[in-house]
């Protein structure tokens, strides 16, 4: 079943035409990745899906309990539909403790028992966060902050998790650990749309991928096919 | 019994503390930059004074006290409503734009009052009953601190802190940032109005010169000096900055120079303010 369906999407930053007619689909249960270099429009696309930016043209439809036009909804309404973003650069709240950050993540949830259940799940997925739960966010390492950002997004009980550059500025050992956890999260029934600059890592993790270049999709297909594609290899995987 | 002069200064400290704590909710905890606090204070002062002078019946002690409460609440509600009116359009602005918009609002309020003859216009408003005593002022301060403390250290308050740190991240977890900014602004304005009412009934005379933008800056200085995001800090700074100019009277014309120098040195040596984001009653938070 198609969970998210984007058709002919255009986004402008003032005069800059950042996204030029993108169409893509995310099916339920998949991990789909968007790869591309800096300025290709990956973050812009994620922010548009989660309602932080408005598209100038095109539609974003989310199909869960009926069709919902995300392109016309506000960010807090979108979170309530089950589409939750973990923003680029982690953006955790530095002066709040780990537990307070997680609690805020569950802001859209009203059921205390479910919040408690999500919290336990996050602590199972990221035991490090449990150890550090009374520490303020600003004192965590980069990798721990990324875990917290993902954990905070999970607290909203997403059906579709939007992840923006989870490997950015993080020690390689922790990157592996985080990506392993992403697969576990996916196995628990969360569909993931992953934006990532480390194309190899992203394609290894994902089922399908889209390649973005200056606001357009230039290539798409199963992740395995994209890894084998010479054009992708040359541009993004550092192979000649 | 303490000397009436010290008593008056102490009561002024209490009013200043109410003003600083309520401004901290907006400028410190929520990270917005309002320069309009003197405007909200003026609304509260004039509305409550008008209630006391024109409406309150001349009856026994108990009735007088009840009417004082009504006057204070009217001032607070008027200021809060004005906060809603001003906050809705301006809180979409960020940082310095918001500062200028709120500064402009405070100037408008002052000019409007200056031209209202019923409340004395430029001559000022006189004969306001002197009802603000220690019980009223410090009781109100305690209630203000209690309410704002319960607000900022709850899930709603964490949402405010989240807004002060990063609006995009806050919106991304499903929090309507506009709603919370407006709420903080209205609650802050309400308590500023109450503070204004206490001020009016403490000085028994009101003049628009008491509510210029310099007054707004005084409150901002208290918030910054005490620590953006520390209720304890705002109270301590309100006391310091109210007592200091009086304590330095012996230095005659050098008084304000010394006062300013002390402020500069404090900010250079401790830019997070005296208390940073800590509270006396939550000292070890986030340190284990």
How are the SSEs ordered, and which strands pair?
The complex is a heterodimer of chains A (240) and B (288).
Chain A: E1 2-13, E2 16-27, E3 31-35, H1 42-49, E4 57-63, E5 67-69, H2 75-81, E6 83-86, H3 98-105, H4 112-125, H5 127-131, H6 142-154, E7 160-164, H7 172-187, E8 191-196, H8 199-205, E9 208-213, E10 216-222, H9 223-228, H10 230-236
Parallel strand pairs in A: 3-8, 3-9, 6-7, 7-8
Antiparallel strand pairs in A: 1-2, 1-4, 4-5, 9-10
Helix pairs in contact in A: 3-6
Chain B: H1 4-29, H2 37-55, H3 61-90, H4 95-114, H5 134-152, H6 155-165, H7 167-172, H8 177-203, H9 213-226, H10 231-247, H11 255-269
Helix pairs in contact in B: 1-5, 1-8, 1-9, 1-10, 2-3, 2-4, 2-8, 3-8, 5-8, 6-8, 9-10
What can you see in these coordinates?
The complex is a heterodimer of chains A (240) and B (288). By secondary structure, chain A is an alpha/beta fold. In chain A, 38% of the residues lie in helices and 28% in strands. Chain A has helices at 42-49, 75-81, 98-105, 112-125, 127-131, 142-154, 172-187, 199-205, 223-228, 230-236; strands spanning 2-13, 16-27, 31-35, 57-63, 67-69, 83-86, 160-164, 191-196, 208-213, 216-222. In chain A, helix 3 runs parallel beside helix 6. Chain A is globular. The termini of chain A are far apart. By secondary structure, chain B is mainly α. Chain B has one domain (4-212). Chain B contains 11 helices and no strands. Chain B is globular and about 55 Å long.
